[in-house]
Fold this sequence. Notes:
Elements: H1 2-10, H2 14-47, H3 60-124, H4 142-190, H5 198-229, E1 235-239, H6 240-250, H7 252-257, E2 261-267, E3 272-276, H8 277-293, E4 300-308, E5 311-318, H9 325-329, H10 340-343, H11 352-362, E6 366-371, E7 377-384, H12 388-393
Parallel strand pairs: 2-4
Antiparallel strand pairs: 1-3, 4-5, 5-7, 6-7
Helix pairs in contact: 2-3, 4-5, 5-11, 6-8, 8-11
Amino acid sequence: MRKLRRLALAGRPVRLRFTALYGALFLLSGVGLLAITNLVSLGSRINSPVATPPGEQLTLGAAQELIGRLQSRLSEIQALQARQLLIGSAVALAVMAVVSVVLGRIVAGRVLRPLRTITATTRRISADNLHERLAAPGPADEVKDLADTIDGLLERLEGSFAAQRRFVANASHELRTPLATMRASLDVAVAKPEPVPAQTLALADRIRAELDQVDRLLEGFLMLARTQHGALSDRARLSLGHVVSAALVARAADITAKHLTVHDGDVHDDAWTQGSRTLLTRMADNVIDNAITHNHDGGWIRLTTTADGASALLVVETSGQVLDQEQVARLAQPFQRLGTDRTGSGDGSGLGLSIVAAIAAAHGGDLDLRARPEGGLRVAVSLPLAPARAGVAA
């Protein structure tokens, strides 16, 4: 029972606990004040002498009768005063209880106000605005120490994020040079005048394919680092319908090669958004590439672009086998793939949908991945909606 009571108390808000504590203190102070007042009043009643009324000399019997009446009258007055004092004490105690709770809540709110400010500011800071600091004013107390500690943590996190992004970008750039050298050397070796054995040609083609895969992987690293860095330099208003249509036209040959049926009747021009043209185009390309690559021959792709409330929505659904939702939810993370169980091939670097998620987050949107109950995948990208008139004018 004691353990359950402790857990229940720990689950209450801090302000409620402070209110109960301060209210109890104020109430105990009021009870003590009333108790002292009653004790002093009782002592004065007990020790007060009974005065003999002045007047003529009375007989013994008349004097005793008068004294009896006076004592009876005095007892009635004392009882009346006791009742009045008791009623007044009860009313004062009730008023003091209400005042104690109100004062306790006010004092608790004043004490917790800096903590609420720190909590709200910390919740607002994310990976995109780690440069912000709490910078809590006030004297050097416990709250100030807490704010300074959080500022130091944010500074270290900002440095760590920046170092990580620089490392990915620099490593990707540096690795491009040896890859280009290897590809050039391979082309020179294959292009020699003397006959090249068929086995060597097959090996060269395989190495070239692997180099292309590494090149795409590095390009994905660069895009992911740029997206997470938040560098939206070429901002513009554009229609998701136009972007998706352009991506479909560019991949018409791949769609035909896999005999895919594309249902794009719900692609409209009313889904306008604002952001980096390069990144949003890459986002649409990755979504379409994912729908083509991870689809079986003779399958289908259904595309929808629409304006839903304050969001521009892009939905791409594909055919395929029934997938596990827990595994699908992890596809937005880098290097997460469903493997050959999904498409029968191991193509892809595992960065496509993670780049889509990063681009959507950089634009204030999100990515939702769902396994269709009938089989296949549903990819939904939600972005902030831009005014259509401004987009058309642009």
